[in-house]
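Most newcomers find our protein records easier to grasp once they have seen one. A learned vocabulary of local backbone shapes supplies the integers on the structure line. An example says more than a description, so a record of this kind follows:
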Amino acid sequence: MTKTREEFSVIGKDHPKIEVEEKVKGEYKFVGDISLPNMIHCKVLRSPYAHARVKKIDTSRAENLPGVEAVITHKDVASRLIVRAQPSKTRFKDCHILEEEVRYVGDRVAAVAATTQEIAEEALGLINVEYEVLPFVLDPIEAMRDDAPSVHRMIWLRDEEVQVKNNVQAPVYASIGDVEEGFKQADLLIENEFRTGMPHNAPMGRPACVCRPLPNGRLEVWNQTQSIHISRMSLAESLGIPMSKINVHRVSLGGAFGYYIFLHLTDTICAFLALKTGLPVRLEESREEMFLDGGRHPAIVKLKTGVKKDGTLTAMDMRLIDGVGAYSVTSGICRLECGWFLSMYRCPNKRFEGYTVYTNTPPLCSMRGAGNPQVHFVVESQMDIIAEKLSLDPIDLRLKNHLRVGDTFFGQGKDVVSELRSCGIEELAKEGAKRINWQHRKSITPYEDQPWIKRGIGMAFGYHTSGAATEKPTAFMVDYSGAIVRMNVDGTAALTVAAADNGAGILSVLAAIAAEELGICYEDVVVTGADTDNSLYEHWIHASRGTYSVGTAVKTASLAAKKTILKWAAKILSVSASQLEAKDRRIYLKSEPSKGIGINEVLEHAQNYSWGDAIGTASVKAPSCPPHFVVTFVEVDVDTLTGEVKLIRAVHGADVGTPILPGAIRGQLIGGLHMGLGYALVENVVYDSKDGHVLNPNFRDYKLLTPSDMPQIETFLADIFEPTGPFGAKGIGEGATNPVAPAVYNAVHNAIGVRIYTMPLLPEKILEALKNR
């Protein structure tokens, strides 16, 4: 029997994060805090060229420096191709532990391990490298030309060589219906080209890894990863040792946002040196080094849409070029962008053509939304363009065409298919419109003494998947979770999950789910330390899957443990287990709640009579990947003399199904809003066109919005229940970002009547557009 929200004891209420006391006291451990006896330190020598071949490398002076334990170059690891994700049919291998042919400024040439960081740094300066400088290409469009330099001539798909032509890693195609026929049925055809920016994940915690060799050839690892089990699999294959020889510990991340989905390029260097020297090795990158990989993929997108006069979409055709940088694990982002596009709106005829393109720029990874912010920016900008052309309210146009319960949803690409079973988009749109005063959104002059400042309101619909599980299993995307719940004699529970703690509170959410199912209090659940030796397999914490996918496993394991407790209580009370319920630390009769026994008493009795432990385990695939929906409204002031955009107000509503911890959801909504606003307005990694080096690789030059830049924020939740989720819950992490940037662009257009098609929305672009109007 499904509980109503009013019947919940634990979930739906705010609880302090389980780690809050340690964080306040400064006792919470991150990878950078780990120190081991006899630990040595590693530094990496990096290429000064965007593309070059190492002709000669002399390490003798570095090797002779006192305190240096080891120096390695590509010669030591020439045959070791790195595997950076779970091996599968779609995973590419295109880089080594260290490179002979370097492909971006900052690529890995050599590494030193020494007794101190200072000695290691000094040793790097003693390595002499002679390079053959090669032609390079920085722009994805330029890279696809026939005469462009080849970033890669050959890559490996599993163990087979694949030729790379025009720097395109793997095209992605998909179609639904007949697009050309759909265009013929349209009363209006709209075609636009957009170019997105390249923000960095910018986690506060810098990349770090500690590896300790153990007896019998084993290796112990503490690294920053969004899946300790995939880290173990990747390291094992990259180093050529059995997976059973590696134990990876879960350590909390100082932020991630997708930065640590794939095995970090320097983790294999650290592990190799630990095995080579027989000593614990620590590698921590500088802030500047952090900007030498990671970031959201830039996209160049052409979108053509056919629509009838009443706003009914007849056909949509998207051509997308996805820049991936120098190395890539998979064409996954482009595949995801395909799925996001197919699921944006109801339209009988759709076509997607996408290209993942190599360039001589730092390798990119996933970043909050994994291709979805790019697709949202394009589609939601064009929806406003269509609404203006047809003189329709932008909300009405969207509501006419949005997905409905029963529709097909492509959660993580064209291969990940499910049925939509819950959707709060209409409730969010209506409530948000009321809060932002949408009916009076016409451009106004808010300050009488400053008539050059114009105010406007914009909005956008958004969504993201909750996990990556297709209803029919597919080898393209893995999504299953494991949990172990063991009851203690005092009535508390130990919960063991390998789920990565990215800092958003996922372990607290899982503790609340376990407590609710077991009938105990939130503080009664102890989340144990986890490593790959003592935990069940857990996939990446990505795709906003923590609450939905891992929560499903935790609820299942908790139910198994509870069934044992109910069975024992039934023996003690001489009733049937089906007559009993667990709540508020008690087992009681459903028909007579006053008659019962404490959970701790049941467990004590079981121990005294040697009945065993009450334990539950679960290793389960999530049943689906239901989308969570977000509607964003933004109010801005635009200074037409300077081009400056000032954020005034934001209304940010979400459909997360049942909210497990409302405070954590609000934190995700505000954090996602912040990242989306930064994506729209300021965040962008910039390369020097002359030599390809990053011009803003630090928090001084890479611009982030500060608290003083943020608008007044209202958040709210739709009253929705997801039938496949744990207690009706869905995710929220990435959907909170996806619609924000187009909402800002639409607000600016509403204010000043000009539209910008490239990111970020810099003042000079606004001034140029006003000048050209």
Remarks:
- The mean pLDDT is 95.
- The domain at 391-471+625-772 is CATH 3.30.365.10 (Aldehyde Oxidoreductase; domain 4).
- The chain is about 25% helix and 25% strand.
